[in-house]
Amino acid sequence: MTRRPAHLHTPLAALAALAAAVWAPAPSPLHARPRDPDVPRGLARALAEPARHASRGSSAELDLALRRLPGGMADPQGAVVTVEGKDVAGIAARVRGSGGRVQVAVSGQVQAWLPWAALFEVAAAPGVTRVRPPLLARPAGDVTGEGVEVVGADSWVRNGHDGDGTQVAVVDLGFAGWEDLAGEEVPGDAPLRFEGPAADTEPHGTAVAELIYDLAPGADYVRYAFSTDSDFIAVVQDLLDHPVDVVNASIGFPNYYPSDGDSGLARAVDAATDAGMVWVAAAGNEAQKYRIGPFGDDDGDGRLEWEQGGAERLKVYAVEGGLVQVVVRWDDPYGDVRNDFDIQLATVGGDVLAESAEDNIDLGYPFEDLSVEIGDATAYLTILAADAPGTGDIELSAWSYGGLSEWTAGGRVTVPADARGAVAVGAWDLASGDVASFSSLGPTEDGRDKPEICAPSGVSTRVYGDEGFPGTSAAAPHVTGMVALALGALGGELAHADVPEWLAGEAVDVGAGVQECGAGLAHLAGAPPPAACGGCHAGGRSALAGSTAAPALALAGVLAGRRRRRT
User: Fold this and answer.
1) Cα–Cα distances in angstroms (integers) from residue 373 to residues 276, 318, 350, 377, 488, in the given order
2) Alpha-helical runs (H) found in 263-359
3) What pLDDT is recorded for position 147?
4) In the chain, what is the greatest distance between 2 CA atoms, to the nearest angstrom?
5) Per-range mean pLDDT, top range of 108-117, 141-150, 367-376, 390-399
6) Alpha-carbon distance 29 to 367, whole Å?
7) DSSP string, 121-181
8) What angle do helix axes 45-56 and 59-66 make, rounded to 10 degrees?
């Protein structure tokens, strides 16, 4: 795995800060679990187990332990890990001296590949506060997306506007298939400034760029393919060194951090917007994936009830051929965790499919996560109180990638769309003419209104073909393309800092609540100004080619002020 460029290793302290909320636990400790004295404090159990099995040559046990680690991040020889501590240069030197390879070094953390034999040594080194698996981001079709017409950009393109003079950065997981579409569906010249492990295998970023290019084919583009939280911070550092006009980030980190705008990821976004960039973020597809609220252990068996006197298990759904991913987080402050919970997946008959039992107090982060393939099995989630004096007085949130049988609506815009400077975009489903049922709802965990706006999803792309490109991942690039188009057309008349207010003023009221659709459906109202070149892009790619009647009918309904049902 390669990382570019070298100057990304410049420290940037403000971007690595984590939330520091005040929390006071209640007494009454439950089910304390003794520490393993052979494991250094701050070393994730998920890493300690495979390291031990590798040293003993236990291949079968090692294979099972590797299944608990993020996909593509570990193998029988070693793993990609995040090493945290203040002395980044010293940690990087320690990693190299132990036979490891530094991939990213940002303030407070070093992402590196380490051989299993070196893991305990590095974790126990002076100045290392914790060693953990990296946190992975998740994604939140000649084909022109139907959204061009729905957002009112067609008349702007006919009038010769194409985003010329603006710079767009696409921050995503990967750009597979880019070369096959370059110069037709995506820009022919778009440097890849950061290359994560999925850069050539994940097509999501290519589909995102298709939709932006539909609206702003004359803009200059740059790409960033990243995978982890450390990668993300490094990408923002590079953007601060090489600023652009507008950034599209159709990605998210669900439930690892509070959506309160204070995580290091959200602060990184704010650093970019403070520097003058417009940051457009997918709000997330999490509306039916969270269960949130106070939990208790009324019967004292160490298994938490989902509500007072309620059930101790919650059904979770699998995706992608039996893959289940779960993250359970509670509201202790990062770095000062007072409670330790474990999570377990089991069949209806009680057979354990997977479990995660980190020492959260030592590690300093208030969440447990797991990822496992369960085939055709039906899985139920249980939360266990390992060492939890605050049980009953704190809020927990459970998230499942495939969804939950019972969920809590609202309140979970995905990180970093919760950033104060981000324009978070919800999804408007073209097929139903409504806010998409999956689109993440606000407010943020600190009570701010999100998303700011919604935009079309379920549109055509070459990458995803006839089935369409759904999700807020598709909604965000429509807004990014609109911003690039407007900045190019209006020049100095529209300041970057005024773009969020401008978008809200242009939006169409579709009768949705502010926590569902923000100011409304993104739209370029009114006649566009004449292009200085008098139709300079008329000979190029037409933004109306291949459009269908369906989006026109959907737009007619929107402009007529049709009231919509609530989701």
Assistant:
1) 43, 8, 17, 9, 47
2) 264-274
3) 62
4) 75
5) 108-117
6) 19
7) HHHTSTT--EEEPPPBPB-------THHHHTT-HHHHHTT---TT-EEEEEES--TTHHHH
8) 160
Q: How far is CA 564 from CA 102, 506, 511, 553, 567, in A?
A: 52, 20, 6, 15, 9
CB-CB neighbours of 45 under 10 Å: 17
For residue 174, give the nearest of 229, 106, 250 by alpha carbon. 250
- Tokens found for residue 514: 């502010």
- Rounded CA-CA distance 92/81 in Å is 12
Burial 487-496 (b: 16+ CB within 10 A, else e): bbbeeeeeeb
As a whole number of angstroms, the distance between CA 271 and CA 14 comes to 9
Under 8 Å between Cβ of 156 and 544? no
Q: How does pLDDT run across 439-498, given as a tens digit for each residue?
A: 999 999 999 999 999 999 988 889 988 778 889 999 999 999 999 999 998 877 899 999
CB 330 within 8 A of CB 396: yes
Name the helix (H) or strand (E) containing 224.
strand 220-225
Are 35 and 340 in contact by the 8 Å Cβ rule? The answer is no
The identity of residue 370, as a single letter, is L
Phi-psi region of 454 (alpha: psi -120 to 50; beta: other; left: phi over 0): beta
The span from the first CA to the last CA of the chain, in angstroms, equals 43
d(CA 458, CA 520): 18
Contacts of 382 (CB under 8 A, 6+ apart): 303, 304, 312, 313, 343, 344, 345, 346
Cα–Cα distance, 387 to 36 (Å, whole number): 14
Give me the torsion for CA of 327, 420, 408, 323, rounded to 10°. Answer: -30
The pLDDT score that the predictor gives to residue 299 is: 83
Distance (Å, whole) CA 134 – CA 111 = 8
Q: For residue range 545-556, what is the model confidence (pLDDT) as tens digits? A: 233 333 333 333
DSSP letters of 75-103? ETTEEEEEEE-S-HHHHHHHHHHTT-EEE
Q: With contact defined as beta carbons under 8 Å apart, do 60 and 69 qualify?
A: no
The per-residue DSSP string of 1-63 comes to -----GGGGS--GGGG----------S---S-----TTSPTTB-HHHHHHHHHHHHT-HHHHH
Dihedral of the alpha carbons of 133, 18, 387, 254, in degrees to the nearest 10 = -60
Lookup: tokens for 491: 């020049």
**What are residue 331's phi and psi, to 5 degrees?**
-90, 40
Q: What is the pTM of this model?
A: 0.85
How distant is the alpha carbon of residue 24 from its chain centre?
30
Residue 279 tokens, joined: 């940051």
Quote the CA–CA distance of 206 and 149 in Å, as a whole number. 21
Regarding beta strands 246-249 and 167-172, do their DSSP bridges make them parallel or antiparallel, or are they unpaired?
A: parallel
Give every CB contact of residue 556 below 8 A, 6+ residues apart in sequence: none
Cα torsion 453, 458, 463, 466 to 10°: value is -160
CA distance 312 to 380: 9
